[in-house]
């Protein structure tokens, strides 16, 4: 025990002597290091400034700069802040990531460089000095990512029945979080009906991930685009086609057509249907299936069975379609007695069938002579009145009409003021008129 104490005392004495010697030595050191050396330690390493946070677009190179002075025998390391993984020590990269390197410049700057940055590189990085206590500084990298639309989580083309609801969704990723805007491909307005309300608002665009359309109308059918954009180009878009399905409806603007023999007569029906209908023309005394089966008139008696009309020398059949709207046209060439009768334009699709009925009759014309008062009233009707008022020469009228090869005369006398009536009503009216 005594021996140990003696040894310890000798060691203390020697240590103190050594320290005294050191102090004397340091007091003669250069003036610049005087302060530190007076305390008997090396100058403390410290950071120069702070690390600037940076934002880079994905794919570029990111740099974080750490400046240290008085590093001395200490070392500078770079760590990932989230999991404290050591990335580099001094200039040596210790992580297995060949996109990472450290650039050592002008003795006291250590730059962490990450090439082709990805979204996974986003986060904070720590510049650390292994002094005691340890010193650290943090800098963060934000990675800008252009928008992308996740197809699996976004709407595909969609078909719904009229009156049902639909929701069009576009899920987009990116940094910053992209905003999603909806537009119609045809530039038409987007109609948004507030839930539980009859109110409909119109806008040329809609902002939001989900475009909710309730109680769809046919006019809302079309292609919609969602456009995802943030500050990082390019913006991306996706096309979503919305089909609204409904049974056909048919409207014949002129249901009674008079024509002189020998002329070409054009019959026309306007059709609305989705999906696209199959349309055709029938001739004959056929009643619509939802039917009025009243007595046949003299016009129909010769044609008990309907005849399907085919495009050819006698009949010119065309159909124009634009979206869910279409126009069916039938031209009866060289109008003769046998062409007098009832014609039906029929349109069917998977949801139903509709039919328009038109009647074609002969106008007797005596060229060069004044038509009798009766004929004026019966066949030419309102048109004759109009012509008489304007030109004051009713005899000119028939000649004028004959000169036109496509002869189409609407007997306004029998027309409904509102022409937006469908086939059933039309047939009904026509019959009543004929019977009266
Ligand atoms: C960098 O971002 C981090 C985290 O958002 C923050 O704590 C730090 O103060 C920022 N540094 C600078 C220099 O703005
Ligand atoms: C949608 O957002 C853009 C940009 O934030 C804005 O200019 C536009 O007016 C918004 N549109 C609607 C319909 O809210
Ligand atoms: C139209 O004819 C009637 C008789 O035929 C005549 O009384 C009238 O003056 C004529 N009007 C015009 C504008 O020529
Ligand atoms: C016949 O009338 C139609 C309009 O109803 C017109 O487009 C056409 O050019 C006319 N034809 C002739 C030969 O005058």
Question: How would you characterize the overall build of this protein?
Answer:
Residues 45-139, 147-243, 248-359 form the Ig-like domain. There is one protein chain. This protein is α+β, with helices and mostly antiparallel strands and 436 residues long. Among the domains are: 46-144, Immunoglobulin-like, CATH 2.60.40; 154-245, Immunoglobulins (Immunoglobulin-like, Sandwich), CATH 2.60.40; 252-287 and 306-362, Sandwich (Immunoglobulin-like). 16% of the residues lie in helices and 41% in strands. The protein has five helices and 30 strands. The strands form six sheets. Strands 11, 14, 17, 19, 20, 22, 25, 26 and 29 form a nine-stranded mixed β-sheet that branches. The longest helix is centred in the N-terminal third of the chain and has 26 residues, at 2-27. The N and C termini lie far apart (143 Å). Residues 22-38, 286-303 and 369-436 have low confidence and may be disordered. One 2-acetamido-2-deoxy-beta-D-glucopyranose is lined by residues 404-406, 408.
Jot down its keywords:
436 residues; Immunoglobulin-like; 9-stranded mixed β-sheet; 7-stranded mixed β-sheet; 41% strand; binds 2-acetamido-2-deoxy-beta-D-glucopyranose; Ig-like_fold
Number of helices: 5
Number of strands: 30
Shape: rod-shaped
CATH architecture of the domain at 46-144: Sandwich
Enter the CATH topology name of the domain at 46-144: Immunoglobulin-like
Structural class: alpha+beta
* Largest β sheet strand count, sense and barrel closure: 9 strands, mixed
Separation of termini? 143 Å
Roughly what percent helix?
Answer: 10-25%
Average of the residue pLDDT scores = 77
CATH level-4 homologous superfamily of the domain at 46-144? Immunoglobulins
The hetero molecules present are: 2-acetamido-2-deoxy-beta-D-glucopyranose
- How big is the Rg? 46 Å
- CATH top level of the domain at 46-144 is Mainly Beta
Low-confidence stretches: 22-38, 286-303, 369-436
């Amino acid at each position: 025990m005594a021996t140990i104490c003696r040894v310890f005392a000798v060691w203390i004495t020697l240590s103190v002597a050594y320290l005294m010697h050191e102090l004397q030595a340091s007091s003669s050191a250069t003036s610049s290091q005087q302060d530190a050396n007076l305390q008997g330690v090396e100058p403390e390493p410290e950071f120069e400034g702070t690390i600037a946070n940076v934002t880079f677009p994905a794919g570029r190179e990111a740099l974080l700069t750490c400046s240290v002075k008085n590093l001395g025998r200490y070392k500078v390391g770079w760590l990932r802040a989230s999991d404290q993984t050591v990335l580099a020590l001094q200039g040596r990269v210790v992580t297995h990531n060949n996109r990472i390197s450290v650039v050592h410049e002008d003795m006291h700057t250590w730059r962490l460089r990450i090439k082709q940055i990805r979204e996974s590189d986003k986060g904070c990085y720590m510049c650390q000095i292994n002094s005691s206590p340890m010193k650290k500084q943090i800098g963060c990298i934000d990675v800008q990512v252009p928008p992308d639309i996740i197809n699996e989580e976004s709407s595909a083309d969609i078909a719904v029945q009229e009156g049902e609801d639909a929701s069009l969704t576009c899920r987009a990723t990116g940094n910053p979080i992209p905003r999603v805007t909806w537009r119609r491909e045809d530039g038409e307005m987007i109609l948004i009906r507030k839930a539980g309300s009859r109110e409909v608002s119109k806008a040329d665009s809609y902002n939001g991930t989900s475009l909710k359309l309730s109680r769809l109308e046919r006019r809302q059918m079309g292609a919609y685009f969602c456009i995802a954009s943030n500050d990082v180009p390019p913006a991306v878009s996706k096309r979503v086609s919305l089909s609204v399905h409904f049974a056909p409806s048919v409207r014949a603007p002129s249901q009674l057509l008079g024509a002189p023999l020998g002329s070409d007569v054009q019959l026309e029906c306007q059709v609305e249907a989705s999906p696209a209908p199959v349309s055709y023309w029938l001739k004959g005394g056929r009643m619509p299936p939802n039917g009025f089966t009243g007595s046949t008139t003299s016009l129909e008696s010769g044609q008990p069975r309907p005849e399907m009309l085919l495009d050819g020398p006698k009949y010119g059949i065309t159909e124009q379609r634009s979206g869910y709207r279409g126009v069916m046209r039938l031209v009866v060439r060289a109008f003769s007695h046998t062409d007098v009768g009832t014609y039906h334009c029929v349109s069917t699709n998977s949801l139903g069938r509709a039919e328009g009925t038109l009647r074609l009759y002969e106008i007797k014309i005596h060229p060069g002579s004044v038509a009798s008062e009766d004929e004026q009233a019966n066949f030419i009707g309102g048109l004759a009145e109009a012509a008489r008022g304007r030109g004051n020469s009713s005899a000119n009228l028939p000649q004028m009409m004959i000169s036109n090869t496509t002869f189409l005369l609407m007997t306004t006398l029998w027309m409904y003021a509102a022409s937006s009536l469908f086939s059933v009503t039309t047939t009904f009216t026509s019959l009543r008129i004929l019977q009266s």
